[in-house]
Amino acid sequence: MRILFINSSLTSGGSERVMTLLANKFSDKGIDTTMSLVRELGPDVYRVSEKVKLVRYKYGTKNKVVIAIKRFIKLRQQIKNGKFDAVIVFMNDLNLITLMAGANTGTPIYISERADPSKRLDTKIYKVLEKHYYPKCTGMIFQTPDVRDQFTDEIKKKSKVIPNPVSENLPEPHIGERKKRIVAAGRFADQKNFSMLIKAFSEFHKDFTDYYLYIYGKGPKEKELKELALNLGIGDSVFFPGFVDNLIDEIKDASMYVSSSNYEGISNSMIEAMAMGLPVICTDCPVGGARMMIKSGTNGFLIPVDNEKVLSETLKLIGNDPNLGERLGNNAIKVRVTHSVDKIADMWIEMVNKK
Fold first, then answer.
1. What's the predicted TM-score (pTM) here?
2. Is 122 helix (H, G, I), strand (E, B) or coil?
3. How far apart are CA 299 and CA 329, in angstroms?
4. Which residues contact 296 (CB under 8 A, 6 or more apart)?
5. 219-243 as b/e, with b when 16 or more CB fall inside 10 Å?
6. Which among 170, 184, 203, 315 is least buried, having the fewest CB atoms inside 10 angstroms?
7. CA atoms within 13 A on the CB side of 13
8. What angle do CA 217, 178, 242 make, to 5 degrees?
9. Which residues, in sequence order, are CB contacts of 47 under 8 Å at separation 6+?
């Protein structure tokens, strides 16, 4: 079997990470695997196996129109001439251009929706093109049933729900006393709603003054979030370390991990926190990714979206009962087995083989 993965880049995006894990595992299973990186972004964050043929598109210009045209031509040539058994592509903009470039080549193309389609700010022309080309895919993979329900019956009939995998190179879960740290990670944007987390932590901190909040990431809301922490009088207890290469090592011995998003597919950092045995608190946000992973009160807690009062109370619940946190973490570790790269890759391979 010969498979072509169409990836954006090897930077820090969640979709890029998942595709890299899958491509590496496909090649481990003896599948002839190629990955094309169609955007000239860097530096690389994710490692691609030496068994994977890595193709980097080069354009020789910064003109966006010229780049778009050259990308289309390169994609079509590669799909048409590569004799691939299947093409797999993530992210809505790359889904569309790949379907267009692969039209009438006879190559099966599998696309995947990685977030909440209702939150996209698509142009009218994009919506028209998507309506025309998406049904032409061979199959479509969704992260959650809630996302699949936003699409037509025509697409649903040739779709499958496959969750994100857990990385294989995670260190062993921390054993012993945990640091008095609450951690979170993501882009500093409205979607992640870190302002709600900071406000909830402010209330929590009144009773738990020895705890600190670490929010890893960067983004347009950084200054606003720092000012919020200062205005709430907790500036000395809230830290913003930026993006770090070794996030798992930074958070593995923390007391809690919080995902405060207003909407989310399946958070990779949430899955990794669970796999590391951290007690996880996550908003039960559209499109149901956290709900697929967390049984509230058993291997983590689900809380309502944008509800700082409930978040603060849940932080206190775990803060007051270290045994509860340990039990949640021990149950969360099971995602290492249930969502292993090997199992998730097999689900993708089964989908491709159905053609």
1. 0.87
2. coil
3. 6
4. 302
5. bebbeebbebbeebebeebbbbeee
6. 170
7. 16
8. 10
9. 20, 24
